Amino acid sequence: MKQINLCIDGKEVQVPAGTTILAAAEVAGKKIPTLCFLKDINEIGACRVCLVEVEGARTLSASCVTPVSEGMKVHTNSPKVRRARRLQVELLLSDHEMTCPTCIRNGNCELQQVAEDLGIRDIRFTGGKKNSAPVDRSTPSIIRDPQKCILCRRCVSVCTATQTVEAIAATNRGFDTVIAPANGRSLADSPCVKCGQCVLVCPTGALIEREYVEEVWEALGDPTKHVVVQTAPATRVAIGEEFGYDPGSINTGQMVAGLRALGFDKVFDTDFTADLTILEEGNELLQRLNNGGTLPMITSCSPGWINFIEFFYGDELDHLSTCKSPQQMFGALVKSYYAEKYDLNPDDIICVSIMPCTAKKFEAGRTEMSVTGNTPDVDYVLTTRELARMIKQAGLNFNELPEEEYDAPLGISTGAGVIFGATGGVMEAALRTVYEVVVEEELPSLDFEFARGLEGVKEAEVDLKGTKVKVAIAHGLSNARRLLDQIKDGTSPYHFIEVMCCPGGCIGGGGQPIPTNTEIRQKRIDATYQADRDMPLRKSHENPAVTTLYEEYLGKPLGEKSHHLLHTHYTKRRRK
């Protein structure tokens, strides 16, 4: 590729043709502030904070969209550049709701950080007509606050390009511009799948998770309630980032200790029901293969993905596994098996989930997710970020917490349950079990390398002692759409498909620490597989607690009781 030579702040730099000034400046060791820029997703030069001075140009240039040219001389910190950047940020602040101390993003807000880096101490403008659009609290997952929006359009880009949902867009013009669903609708009245990817990329507090911290504190303080908590696989490789650990740190034991210190009566692991999911889902796949059932069968663990297929591909719902997600399996068992085993009234049990996901909040409230009929199986869902806030509110020093173990029996799990957190993990966990059940031989290697990595769609053919099974893996809804279109037009060659709503899988969920980008996702994935390797058991069908559960309570996979507790149905939704 042709190389371009240019000079940035007096430093000679050589970069490939087509490189932007912003990327070239990074090579030169120069940091240019940005607000709207989102690599490969939102490169539109809208915020004008990344302006630079190019010798010979009549005006300042937006570095995120301006390609380099041979011999170009760029100044990133000239008086003209500094004045322009300060002016632009002051104008943004003049139309911004200045409630920083009470904002959920205080201390982790890009607008706040840019203002600090530019040394802005006063705002010379009172602003024009401030955005008066109301706060949208219509969903149990996401809150949209237009008064904190800076119109960067990152959320629009990720919703449109990455997820292909198009639930929100820029509407109206001028001071009346607002990022919202079409025709003034609320998020609840739109095809929003509640994935929270918009929350991850929002530079301010304009899009945040619906918080249930106070409700959980109230439950913990009620002596009449037995409060249990489950933690999703992806939380253990991300929670540490909220306390200064590097991305990819594994903090399982400290997280358990923190939860116990907060006052939960039992600290359990969603990995337990991830193992259980493999037993149910694996047997469901074998049943479909042997009895002419609907193929390909598609995993149903990701609630954002379930919302998507219900909205956009409602005629293909028969392809979904009927299994509930591990979160909901866990809640159902807590309110039935666990309650009976320990002589507890299900109505007195509060089940809390710690999830990397905002869509899980919506899932917990689905009407079909109640085995007792009186209370939801999962009462409250907290994101990884919300758990970190609770730990800080309690005055716990996370970095000094001892490593503790989960409680039995619903805290016993395998490495197969752990890898549910990464894209391809459900597929790999399923194949570890299905292979050994069908072939009746021990796997020579537990690592299915084809299932790993961040490629949008991965595929392979697995030989089960003469039975060839074609499988595919997709993460991010734009990639899922590719596979669904094949199913819709009758050209899909696959038997089994794993879909995860969020890029990277649950490790990149909408409730994970901010920032979450490609590099951080990869580090969390690497940590997930390290956690798997560290487990004494790595196959779901070898989980002794799951074996006991079937012997004592469920009977067998796909049996009458497991069908009642662990399986569900999905509903075609009307798009308005």
Describe the structure.
The structure is a single chain. This protein has 576 residues and is an alpha/beta fold. The protein has 3 domains: 3-93, Ubiquitin-like (UB roll); 129-210, Alpha-Beta Plaits (2-Layer Sandwich); 214-566, Rossmann fold, CATH 3.40.50.1780. The protein is 34% helix and 14% strand. The protein has helices at 21-27, 79-94, 110-117, 154-162, 197-201, 213-220, 252-262, 270-291, 303-312, 326-341, 359-364, 384-393, 415-418, 425-439, 477-488, 518-534, 544-554, 560-566, and strands at 3-8, 11-16, 51-54, 61-62, 73-75, 142-144, 169-171, 178-180, 207-209, 226-231, 266-269, 297-298, 349-355, 380-383, 457-464, 467-475, 496-500. The strands form 5 sheets. It has a 5-stranded mixed β-sheet, sandwiched between helices. A hairpin with a 6-residue loop joins β7 (169-171) and β8. The protein is globular and about 75 Å long.
